[in-house]
Specification:
alpha+beta; Cytochrome p450; three-stranded antiparallel beta sheet
């Protein structure tokens, strides 16, 4: 079945994701009428849109059958794909991080830093993360009862945590935040490098590449420093890491830094901002949390489901196969729609309700299988600690304006959450 063109366009249009309702309606239609069907928006190669929770898991668990790296891991136009391949010597990727790798490389590169993100090792970080959270809360409380929670708290707190883990000096954090927003918000005129809306693929791609080059220039200098003066930080692990006795390739090392320095905070920021937005609109849910702080962990899981900061990843079939009764051909491109999986009526009761008591909560926001998010435990810990520090100090919260989301179809979330709050 071919997806109607207006729905296919909605699935790839960055403005759909800033609107919220438009993408929710499109994905709900697909789950109901065409849960696994082909989209071909103008200017794009055809691709399967995978909208049901069970089918997303089925693809995610079969890493040899559905590859990350054979084609672009994010949905992209034919022209953009051709230009990237011309720039990158035939590769469809501007960077080559864990996200763009398949085994055996994926396993080997993931193992390099995996220990840093295991729960038992994160316990050593907990005291320091709580200090950072207390500082963020204190700054918010000093704002006089009103702030933009996204800009003033949610963007800065996870940024400070991951930069400290990585080894980036605090004075460079604003630069890292700006580059991250340019990378993930490349389709949004308010945050991209050009400062405008552009339909010119070459111009947009040049801006994106310039952002990547800025990241690489910064982390190349950091690599040289950590090879001379290794420290107890993640940058030293990457700089001095080896795969089968050989140092990491330049592109792979730079890409490792970039994914840590961007996804390592932006997704947590989006989720945290989304949680505050949801609570500010739902006094009953806020009150439940205030009365029972033991609900904070389940609220964190619900906010991860609710916001789903990573909107999609693409996979490529390596052989002819069948999925949900449909014949998938070798080379076919599939779009895994995580917000749709997280609103699947077959899995979640009342999926369009934000419920801090929701259990079980088998969301797919972190992915599944071999590619499950490396930083998931750190993200959960950061969010739990922030709410543990914030909730006892605030009596009530409400919106003080209209929240806004970033225009992006890959990674995005709220870019403004103006709130008014009363101290406890």
């Amino acid at each position: 079945m071919r997806i109607p063109e207006d729905v296919a366009i909605a699935v790839v249009d960055p403005k759909s994701y800033s609107d919220g309702k438009r993408i929710d309606d499109a994905l709900a239609y697909l789950r109901r009428e065409a849960p696994l069907a082909v989209a071909q928006p103008p200017g794009f190669d055809p691709f399967w849109v995978v909208t049901r929770h069970a089918d997303i898991l089925n693809v995610e668990r079969q890493n040899d059958l559905f590859h990350n790296g054979d084609r672009s891991t994010v949905v992209t136009t034919i022209e953009a794909d051709q230009r990237v391949r011309a720039m990158m010597g035939g590769s469809p990727h501007l960077v080559r991080s864990l996200v763009q790798m398949d085994n055996p490389d994926h396993f080997a590169y993931r193992r390099l830093t995996q220990a840093w993100f295991l729960p038992q090792n994160l316990r050593n970080l907990e005291v320091r993360v709580r200090e950072i959270a207390r500082g963020a809360v204190a700054k918010m409380l000093d704002s006089g009862g009103e702030c933009d929670f996204a800009r003033d708290v949610a963007f800065l707190y996870p940024l400070h945590v991951i930069m400290e883990v990585l080894g980036v000096p605090e004075m460079d954090e604003p630069r890292m935040l700006k580059l991250t927003q340019e990378l993930f918000g490349s389709q949004d005129p308010e945050v991209n490098r050009t400062g405008k809306r552009t339909d010119d693929v070459a111009e947009g791609l040049a801006a994106l590449q310039a952002t990547v080059v800025d990241f690489m220039t910064y982390f190349n200098a950091m690599t040289e420093d950590r090879r001379r003066n290794p420290r107890n930080d993640l940058a030293s692990v990457i700089a001095n890491g080896a795969i089968e006795g050989q140092p990491l390739g330049h592109l792979e090392a730079m890409s490792y830094y970039i994914i840590a320095a961007t996804a390592g905070h932006d997704t947590t920021s989006n989720t945290t901002a989304g949680a505050m937005w949801a609570l500010a609109e739902r006094p009953d849910q806020f009150r439940k949390l205030k009365e029972n702080p033991a609900l904070i962990p389940s609220m964190v899981e619900e906010s991860i489901r609710w916001e789903t900061p990573v909107k999609h990843f693409m996979r490529t079939a390596t052989a002819d196969t069948e999925l949900a009764g449909q014949k998938i051909a070798k080379g076919d491109w599939l779009m895994l729609c995580y917000p749709s999986g997280n609103r699947d009526e077959a899995v979640f009761d009342d999926p369009f309700a934000f419920n801090v008591e929701r259990t079980p909560n088998k969301h797919v926001s972190f992915g599944y299988g071999a590619h499950i998010c490396l930083g998931q435990h750190l993200a959960r810990m950061e969010m739990r600690i922030l709410w543990e520090e914030l909730l006892p100090r605030v009596k009530s919260v409400e919106l003080a304006g209209t929240p806004r989301r970033t225009e992006a179809n890959f990674v995005c979330g709220p870019k403004a959450v103006p709130i008014r709050f009363a101290l406890a």
